[in-house]
Design goal:
Blueprint (H helix, E strand, L loop, with lengths): L3 E3 L2 E5 L10 E5 L5 E4 L10 E3 L2 E6 L2 E6 L5 E6 L9 E3 L2 E6 L2 E6 L2
Antiparallel strand pairs: 1-2, 2-3, 3-4, 5-6, 6-7, 7-8, 9-10, 10-11
């Protein structure tokens, strides 16, 4: 998955040899220092940063983490494998699954 940049950080899934695949990492944009990593080890989409939150897909769920410390804001299970990374528009978070498009309030 491609990294995302926002809030002075680079958010990457399994970034580099020292990082485990499937975990989301927040790296300092200037130094590359790892600031935090997610507890989840099944992140499989590119992340999206919007409004102080980083969103990512994991199997059949979309996860939202605080950009500052990685604490969980929410997790929504959609019941079908996700096929697209998250996208945001007009306060909605959108993800595609094998059976259609899902929309959630960002907050």
């Amino acid at each position: 998955p491609a990294p995302a940049v926002g809030a002075g950080r680079v958010f990457d899934v399994g970034a580099g040899a020292q990082h485990a695949p499937g975990q989301l990492y927040a790296l300092d944009v200037s130094t590359g220092e790892t600031l935090w990593q997610s507890d989840a080890d099944d992140i499989d989409t590119s992340p999206l940063v919007a409004a102080g939150t980083v969103y990512a897909g994991a199997g059949e769920s979309v996860r939202a983490l605080d950009t500052s410390d990685g604490s969980r804001r929410f997790r929504h299970d959609v019941g079908t494998p996700l096929t697209t990374p998250p996208a945001a528009v007009d306060g909605l978070l959108l993800v595609g699954g094998t059976d259609g498009l899902y929309a959630f309030q960002e907050s």
